[in-house]
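Lay summary. Proteins are chains of building blocks that fold into shapes, and those shapes determine what they do. In this project we predict the shape from the chain. Here is one chain we studied, written as its sequence of building blocks.
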Amino acid sequence: MRKNKAFLIVGVGGLGVPAALAIARSHCIARLGLVDPDPVDGTNLHRQVIYTGSDIGQLKVEAAARRLRDIDCELEIEKFPVAVDADNARGIIERFDFMIDGTDSPAAKFLLNDIAIATGTPFVYGGVLGLTGQAMTVFPGHTACLRCLFENAPDPDEVANCREAGILGSVAGAIGNLQGQEALSIASGREPRLSGGILTYDGAGPARVRFTRVNPRSRCVCGAFERAIVRSAPAHQPEEGTR
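And here is the predicted shape, written in a compact code that computers can read:
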């Protein structure tokens, strides 16, 4: 049954494409937003399977929307051919029920984290580098966020991006599909499996998958640590003789 839910995918590439395909194939939500400023490039085709050679030069959001409508003709798709930044991110994100992070920049990931916290929008973080991948679902004010793990985004000069370090397409596909499944849990009313922890996949040598619980950090901007203390505090009992 189709739910009146709206999901947003920021970055329609190695992570965003498998997430979008999982959502479209479920036929269960009403609206999907796609954010990406880039055109399809020939180097995308081997791991971003929604695109074909005829799409080269066209905007990713346009090409992806056509393929997704072929899968789910009733799915309403909004296209945002822009790069998210501090000026436009809030206006886009606050219109959706859940967000999927398909970006490849640490700065963009922390921006999405901060805007999601400000708007109260749950989201699933995803990252892939080389043969490793990570995913974590965040409920603002309730579970740990990215800044609970890393207080500040790493310096761009210290981080290898996807073009420099490369990624394995199958790892991105698995992580992106997992992000899509986390979103679909929201649509079905189930608690996402990656809420409150981070999944790490390491494909170097024998493949290993590990899920690690992540506690909110004290004084993090998300406030989840302090809210947990308030929620766990015993209710005030009236003093004897005041009942």
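What the prediction tells us: The chain is about 35% helix and 20% strand.
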